[in-house]
Design brief:
Length: 188
């Protein structure tokens, strides 16, 4: 048996499978239950939340298009309504509220073109067949001189669900401020 000089013996290296490194689980961020919105997992609660949210949007669309009958139908038959520029005056009942909106538009013929109400994400709390909502809004329109007018404010609502439909039971509109954004150019 001949031995070669300079040849090194190599030892076969058997690698062990790598160990899975366990990282510590990240802790879920704590939520302050007092300030966090209540979330339920049931389909009924999610449906109620969305139904109440849709009521807020339907109001804006009906108002912008001056569809008084549709607007009135969003209020409960025993609803109350008030707006900050009338002081403490309250209007009660669906027909009375619908008539108020009719007078509002009659007193301002042609003063508001392209009216658009934009509501921000409401602070909406649903509890069974009732809900409360606080929603900020911006409403802009073009007046007869071509100036853009913007009104900002907040809707404070009590909502009620009857026979599967949500209604405004109480609506308070608080106008915070208004301004003109300048002249507009209609169309493209």
């Amino acid at each position: 048996m001949a031995i070669q000089r300079g040849a090194k013996k190599t030892k076969a290296v058997m690698r062990k499978p790598a160990k899975a490194v366990r990282k510590p689980a990240q802790r879920a961020q704590r939520v302050n239950r007092a300030s966090a919105p209540r979330t339920e997992t049931s389909t009924e609660t999610a449906s109620d939340y969305e139904g109440a949210r849709q009521l807020l949007s339907l109001y804006c669309h009906a108002l912008d298009q001056q569809r008084l009958t549709d607007l009135g139908s969003l209020f409960h038959r025993d609803a109350t309504f008030s707006v900050s520029f009338e002081g403490e005056q309250k209007h009660s009942g669906r027909e009375t509220i619908e008539a108020w909106y009719g007078r509002f538009f009659q007193q301002r013929p042609g003063q508001q073109r392209h009216m658009r109400h934009k509501i921000f994400e409401p602070l909406l709390m649903v509890d069974g067949n009732t809900a409360t909502a606080a929603t900020y809004f911006d409403a802009d329109s073009v007046d007869e001189s071509g100036a853009v007018r913007v009104v900002t404010g907040r809707y404070d609502d009590v909502l009620v669900k009857e026979q599967g439909q949500w209604f405004f039971k109480e609506r308070t509109i608080t106008v915070l401020y208004h301004y003109s954004a300048g002249q507009c150019q209609e169309g493209m």
